[in-house]
Design brief:
Length: about 210
Amino acid sequence: MFDIVQAHDTVAAVLSTPIAVDDGMSSLIDYCAEHEPWQGWDVLRKLEFESDQLNLKRWLEDLLTQEPPPDDVNAFWFGLFNPVIKGKSTCGLYAAGTITFDGNDEDFEWACNPAWFPDGRYAKSKILNDIYQRVNKAKDSVSSYQYVLCLGYAGLVLNQLATTLPLSTWLGKESSRALAIGFDSGAGILLGSFTKQGWNRVSRNA
């Protein structure tokens, strides 16, 4: 039986470590396979994560430079949701920014009223769609594990971009900005924060 609390905590723990996207996804797929045997897990290990990461990097860098957040934005929220495109449900990702931020808010209510909601906020990720389509079509409770892999993949990519995109692109004129991700219909994960000194990843006990 799928335990969403345990699954969420597992993703959060992986995202708190300095791990490469491929290695992080391997770890999360191991978790899924351990809890729900399915022959399709090995297929997911062979997805082309690298090319999708490059596309997401280009999207986000262009977004932050062409539609930069206002100076009073204190936090980034990257939301995952399930839009229906051409009659098929999928997993989508968008970028937003808020003036309010509360690092102690476990419900992430601060993310509900974005001040920065750019026109180009929607990412196009083949990997998120592939994961969702493949896992969601599986029988029994396997489909529930798309939560783990979609949240995990998007978070791992953001962690990578937090260190590879220029700090000034993230911060603008601000002295600090937080970075969080989560499903709009579920809990969030605070990934870390940007300061003038660099990227500070949230650390969690295993």
